[in-house]
Description:
disordered N terminus; globular; 4% strand; mainly alpha
Amino acid sequence: xxxxxxxxxxxxxxxxxxxxxxxxLQPTPVKTKKKLIRRSEHEYSQxxxxxxxxxxxxxxxxxxxxxxxxxxxxxxxxxxxxxxxPAGVEGWLPIAGLMNLRYFALTHTVPTIHPAAMFLLVTFxxxxxxxxxxxxxxxxxxxxxxxYLWQLGRKLFKHNFRLPRWLDIGLRGLKYFLxxxxxxxxxxxxxxxxxSFLRSPYGLIADVKMLNFFRHIGETGLIVLGxxxxxxxxxxxxxxxxxxxxGALLGLAALFSPLRIRRNESACIDCAKCAKACxxxxxxxxxxxxxxxxxxxxxxxxxVCPAQGALQMSLLKVMPTAQxxxxxxxxxxxxxxVLFTGIVGFAKTAGYWxxxxxxxxxRQLVPHADEARHPMPGQQ
Length: 380
Ligand code: SF4
Ligand code: SF4
């Protein structure tokens, strides 16, 4: 008679599931920690970049002071002055620059009202194309102030805040939306319309109106400015990342730039310092080349990288097998200086730099600047 074992004495054995090994499955490779070969060269890119930022900030302050002194002479109680209108102030009139660029493309004639706005726009577009969005991180005074503000935030709170991914992506579209609106508005204008807009009282003294906006800023303006400052302290590059249509335009031009941040995977030790340092929050440590329109060519990532030859600003390879050519920080700086002085110098020496508006016209318009209204379509 067969012996029966009671189930309470002998519990059932656990079921063993046999899994078939899929054909061709390789064992997961173990990631070995790469040996760090420390960079030997002296790091100077950020000192150089910050010097450019400060110099351009001072240049803007000087131009602003000259402009204020010049316009004051036309206001009630103002003193006559020998100061000439500094045309460089038109760098703050990017829409006029865009209009003039279209006017030039349509008529092949250099405009006579706010031509400096066009030459400066062309300079910064050329810079974006050749040197990525270097204008934003090396020259733009708003970018510089924005950088000081988020650095202050980092000192105060030990870090900057990051918006949730869905909000960040949504807000990043705002600057392209603004750019699209301005580009559409300008692209629908014929040459005579552009001329009539720029020769209207509003167009002639658009720069005076802009300065007056800040001189006589109202409650709403102050609140908006306050919100932007607080947001810039808390969130890295808030203005540049989400709202600046100028930066959006330069970013699009930079997509065609032959210059890219390139990571050499064999030299990289995967420390992620580059991604942490990137003010545009780009995943530099995970990509081989940075093609993003958000890259400003600031070289912060290169500056913090500890590994020899792991991260460089490089020229695109002509042949797939060729070695990428590195662009050192001094060459970026030289390129920025040559483009700026070259194009501005050309416009000045060729006599294209200054608007041809007589003082008598300014004497008439400047005291009534607040009354000048934006011309509506079809209005002369
Ligand atoms: S990728 Fe490098 S160069 Fe580009 S924005 Fe980030 S830190 Fe600057
Ligand atoms: S900083 Fe970036 S590129 Fe340099 S070693 Fe670390 S992860 Fe690699």
